[in-house]
Amino acid sequence: MKDIVYYVPYFHWGSNLNAGYKARVDTESTFKELGFKELEIFGRNSGEKRTLSLSKLVRMILFKAPSIQTSPTIFFQSGTGIDIFISDALRRKFSRARRVIIIHDIESIRYSRKIDRIREKIVFERFTDAVCNTERLAEYLKNELGFQGRIYISGLWDYLVKNRKLLEEKLQKLFKFKPEKYVVSFAGNLSKSTFLKRIIKELNPSNYMYCLYGKGYGGDAKDGVLEYKGVFHPDELPYKIEGHFGLVWDGEEVNGISGTVGHYLKYNSPHKASLYIVSGLPLIVWKESAIYETVKEYNIGFGVNSLKEIDEILSKVSEKDYQVWRENTIKLGKKLASGENVKEIINRILSK
Hints:
The chain is an alpha/beta fold.
C-alpha cells in the first residue's frame, strides 16, 4: 500500500493575499496537485479566512482516524504565528512519522529578537526534516538553533503562474537591447524599503531608470528617473511588471546595506527574486547577499556593493551579455512558474 502524505494548510487571515503569502499559498497548491491529504485543523469563515479550530486540533490528537498510518510523512509550512501549538500537536500525534517543516523565514535573524530564537528552536526541534532556501540558513539552523534533522536546500521558491500562455506572450514583448535607458524594476511593500526615497536625491542615473510596483510609497517621483507603476495582486504581477532588470535591495541606504536588514539578506533568498525571474527580468543584487550565489550559479544578472555602481556597469553591458542573462532567466523562470522546484525537493524527501 502506498503511504499517504499529509500537509497542514497554511494559516492566513484574509482572501486578498499579499506577497508575503504567495510562496506559502503556492506550496500548498503543489501539495494538492501531488494528491497529499489535508489535515483539517482550521475553521473557515467567509472567503479564504482561516481560524485555528481547537476542537479539530484536539480531535486530531486524541482520536486515531482509520486512514492515519503509523509512519506517514507530514509537511508543515512555518510562519503561521501559532507554529508552537501546531508543531507540538503534530509531534504528539505523529511521533513515529517523518515531520517536515518548510521554512520561509527565520525571524530570529530577520528581527534579531531573543524571543524568536527561543520560539524557533522549540518549534524546529519538533520536526525530523527541514527545507530552507540557502546554505547559509541551513548552517544557521544547525549551528545556532541546534536542528539535528535532515536539511534540504530549495535555492529559490516557486512562483506559480496560472495563465502560462499570457506570460509567454508577455515575455515575447520584453524590452529589447539596446535601449535608450534600461528599466530597473523594484516590487514589494515599498514603505519598508526606505532607500527608495533617497534615489532621486542621491542618484542621477544616466543609463537607466527605476519603476516601482507595490503599496506604501510616499516619496517623490521623477520622469525618466523614478516612476511609480501602482499596486497589483501577486498573481497579476508577472504579467504586469516590465523592465530589463529586477532589483533585490533593502534598507535605508543606496550606498550599501547594513543593520538587521542587511544581516538577513546575507542568509535569505527573497521571494521577490522568484517574481523577477518568472517575469523574465535578470537580477541586480547586493554582492554580500545569499541570492548573489544563485545569480552567479545560473548567470542571471550581476551584483553590486552600492546602487551607485549600476550606471557604470550598465554602460559596459554588451548585447550578448544581456541576451545570455535574459535567456537563462526565462529558462529558470519556467521551472519556478510551474512549481517544479518544490516538487523536486518533495521527491527527494519522499525517496529517502
